[in-house]
Amino acid sequence: MSTDLSKIQTLLVDADLNTRRILRAMLARLGMEKVLDHGTLAEAAGSPSTIDLVILDADQADGAAFRWIHAIRHGLTTLNPFVGAIIMTWNPTQQLMIRFASSGADDILVKPYSPKQVHDRLLNLVENRKKFVVTSDYIGPDRRRSPREGQVVQLIDVPNPLRLKCTGEFERVNIHELTAQAVQIIDSEKVIRHGFQVAFLVEFALPGLAMQPPEKRAMDHALRVTGVLEDLERRLPPGELRVEATHHIRRMEGLIHALKTRGGLAGKDLEQLRQDAHALMGLTSRVDDAEKRVHEVMAAVTGYRSRLEQLTLAKAAPEAAAMATASPGPAA
Length: 332
Known about the structure:
Elements: E1 10-13, H1 17-29, E2 35-38, H2 41-44, E3 53-57, H3 64-73, E4 84-89, H4 94-103, E5 107-110, H5 115-127, E6 132-134, E7 139-141, H6 161-167, H7 175-209, H8 216-223, H9 225-235, H10 240-262, H11 267-284, H12 290-326
């Protein structure tokens, strides 16, 4: 094989010992001898930051593998956030593929796989790795076939440890500096996306929160704001922006905590929540026109409500048809 994979350090995690042995043998035939293997994610948790590639079994029922990849991409583990990531599965169900797409993993191997399939996945990661995109809840390869109309999403070139190792460039670059630069770009994008997401979640939830008692779906969406605020604050750069944004974050956190503990908020508190959400978006957005920002958020809320209604109707249609089939016809 023309591509030298010998310098790549791989982390392999699979509960089945035989699967690990077989895959290690496949990797060895490709020249990849630097392989750490573990049976559980708990054992792999302290893996060194020098790992270039993660190959991970994703058939645990609780979705832990996908959460771990998501954590890697969001800089919450010891691993390089741009490590190559391949998942393995025996059963690529629709639900599993949705989790795969939202985790930030690069590729998927369906068991049983051949040495050629393993080789092709690795070669694709080295030569054709997709650029990364950032949303409020996603960091990873750009999987869009076509962006939504009017949507602008920055494509980010991130360091590819596999390519650097295979081309011999790794020793000639400062991987830590490259990683830090890419993380800074991602943090900036995350701050913008989080600011929009906070305003979106609040605007979506407000009508339902004004009901007595508050609508459950509205409560669920409002409570999601806390996690977004936490990650937003973590990524804010030091300086005036951070000071001003933190003021709104703290007040929103207090209001959402009150919402959770009391089971509702007074009208003035709901309005304060809305004001803080839009003020935070104003601080973090690239759009200077406040009216345009509000329009974009409300358009997103309207589109989201429409999709939810379509899903509800699609789910109800088979049930209605089944009931009609089961009901006796009119008497003759």
